[in-house]
Write a structure and sequence with these properties.
By secondary structure, the protein is mainly α. Helices cover 64% and strands 3% of the residues. The strands form two sheets. A three-stranded mixed beta sheet has the order 3-5-4, sandwiched between helices. A two-stranded antiparallel sheet has the order 1-2. Helix 1 (17-35) runs antiparallel to helix 2 (42-72) and helix 7 packs antiparallel against helix 10. It starts with 16 loop residues before the first helix and ends with a helix.
Length: 579
């Protein structure tokens, strides 16, 4: 395969008649929406919803096209301009959106008798909750307009700097994504030198990125205060359709589990010849035979289809479709952002996955993760257009469930010689979504709090990150070889509209582990219930979504039981590798 994704299902080009027509039509729809006389009656509500559905479809499609182009080429000036144009259009009509949101939050008309509107019962319920946090129409318009040259621009700066920074390594020029991929190399010497080169790359861009982070967090602090939220976390939880009781139960269970993760990290350190805990550069070091296996693109496709078909035919069929139809942008290249993501496109009943594929088992697991997001999209795309968004916590459920499917199958088929290596590979990933995610949560909480009082230069942010890592990893990590710049390379920190995109990974990982245990105990009928649950995620709270599977998320016991499975894996790994 070419390795580059196809976007022609969206538009042929920016010059295509369809793209230009959609851009003009979107503005026309916004104008018509703004001209409506808002009266609390069924006819007006139906008219408003109809306009919102159309603007959501067109706006999402136009924005997705330029955003996906930019993700794989941040230096593409045409896409940058197109993306900016769409964002400016959104901003131009922010006042209209504010007026409409207030209207939806204030209506008293009974919508239950209307077959179409009644499908939006959850949307109207959430609109009422958000109503009290909306500002005047003029202020909402100013916030949206200013965000283009504030939060959004700072975010683009971070993306640009981290995607274009290069260094020389072993005689060739490499990007940040390429150097970070060497963390999985078989050679400890390569891993250590790559880690040192990575830290040096950050030093060349750290201060401008620190300015970006400071200004984004300051903006979020100010706006959440204006809106009457207790904190950015309070705003995030409401936007996540999740209660503080659930988050507290999750975090308490995680804190209780940290000693087990530290046992694992210290044992791995011993296996690799270290005496003071595990250096950061060896967190992803492969152990033994198995984790070092490499895959071609075609082999990764066959591997995933083979294992997913044991769970559900529609999942395996979807994987085949993604590979065959070029829905994946596969390989790293200069200007392409790091990491991986999935972008749901329900308006064309598709998704796209971006990878920085290097053929490692870890990359195949990452592919499974992102295809889980696509599978989630597959099972929610039949909703009406205003019910296509799921909240942050449940966003990671299908992705990490896919990881569990793959790793369980791989370990079950492994020889005794390979099993320890594969279990360790799974523990690497779990450590990231539990321990490292906890450190990121601690870091972001501290940054928001300290930003109220002062500006934080890179050295300040480095200290906060190191303290967060020490609290989360404890003596599992070598305190002389930690990672002070983890705040710099994680794009999740750099959004003015999306804070604390960390605990959802832990939520999704543990929720999926709990669900997977249920699947193993009672596979009969599980797939159908699981698919129904994914469908429900866009129209229910996190707690009500879990109730469809008989789970109470506000109780620490559920989370502790899921973490107990991880501890069993840690014990098995230590047993298999102890002499």
């Amino acid at each position: 395969m070419s390795g580059e994704w196809s976007l022609k299902e969206l538009y042929e080009s920016y010059d295509s008649p369809e793209y230009k027509q959609d851009l003009e039509k979107l503005e026309s729809l916004y104008q018509s929406l703004g001209d409506l006389t808002l009266v609390d009656n069924l006819e007006t509500i139906k008219q408003v919803i109809s306009y919102l559905e159309e603007t959501n479809i067109l706006g999402s499609k136009l924005y997705a096209y330029s955003s996906l182009q930019l993700a794989v080429n941040t230096t593409d000036t045409v896409s940058l301009q197109a993306n900016s144009k769409v964002q400016k259009l959104f901003s131009k009509y922010a006042k209209v959106h504010a007026k409409i949101n207030k209207f939806l939050g204030s209506i008293e008309t009974d919508i239950s008798a209307d077959a179409h509107l009644s499908q939006y019962a959850f949307l109207f319920e959430q609109a009422k909750k958000e109503y009290k946090h909306l500002l005047s129409d003029d202020v909402e318009e100013v916030i949206s307009t200013m965000n283009l040259s504030a939060g959004n621009s700072w975010s683009q700066l971070q993306e640009f700097l981290t995607s274009t920074v290069e260094t020389e390594f072993d005689g060739k020029s490499v990007t940040l994504s390429e150097i970070r991929n060497l963390a999985y190399d078989e050679s400890q010497d390569v891993r250590k030198r790559a880690y040192e080169a990575e830290l040096e790359m950050y030093r060349t861009i750290k201060e401008p990125v620190a300015f970006a982070l400071n200004n984004i967090k300051s903006q979020v602090n100010d706006i959440t205060k204006l809106r009457g939220y207790d904190s950015p976390l309070d705003a995030t939880l409401q936007a996540s359709w999740m209660s503080k009781e659930t988050l507290d139960a999750l975090l308490e269970a995680i804190k209780d589990s940290l000693p087990a993760f530290r046992r694992y990290l210290k044992h791995k350190a011993t296996l690799l010849g270290h005496t003071n805990g595990l250096p950061f550069y060896d967190l992803f070091a492969p152990i033994g035979k198995g984790a070092s296996r490499t895959f071609t693109v075609e082999e990764s496709k066959e591997y995933l289809m083979k294992h997913f078909s044991k769970f559900s035919k529609d999942l395996a069929d979807m994987v085949e479709e993604f590979y065959d139809n070029h829905y994946i942008d596969m390989f790293p290249r200069k200007g392409k952002v790091g990491g991986a993501f999935c972008y749901n496109l329900p308006f064309i009943k598709q998704s796209r996955v971006m990878m920085n594929f290097d053929g490692s088992l870890n990359n195949v697991v990452t592919m499974a993760h992102e295809l889980g997001h696509a599978y989630h999209g597959l099972h929610m795309q039949e909703h009406l257009p205003l019910s296509w968004e799921y909240s942050m916590p449940v966003a990671e459920t299908a992705s990490t469930f896919n990881e569990a499917l793959i790793m369980r199958s791989v370990i079950a088929e492994a020889s005794d010689e390979e099993k320890a290596s594969l279990i360790e590979s799974e523990l690497q990933d779990t450590t990231q979504i539990i321990v490292d995610i906890y450190s990121r949560y601690l870091f972001e909480s501290a940054v928001f709090e300290q930003r109220k009082e002062k500006f934080m230069f890179s050295k300040d942010l480095e200290d906060i990150m190191l303290n967060a890592q020490k609290e989360a990893y404890g003596d599992g990590l070598d305190e002389n070889a930690m990672h002070p710049y983890m705040w710099l390379c994680k794009g999740h920190y750099y959004s003015a509209g999306l804070s604390f995109y960390n605990f959802p990974y832990a939520f999704g990982g543990l929720f999926s582990k709990g669900l997977y245990a249920m699947y193993l105990e009672q596979p009969e009928g599980f797939v159908e219930k699981y698919q129904a649950m994914l469908y429900a995620t866009t129209v229910t709270t996190a707690e009500d979504t879990a109730k469809t599977m008989g789970v109470d998320l506000t109780k620490k016991e559920f989370w502790a039981k899921a973490l107990g499975q991880v501890e069993e894996k840690i014990d098995e790994f230590i047993r298999l590798t102890s002499k």
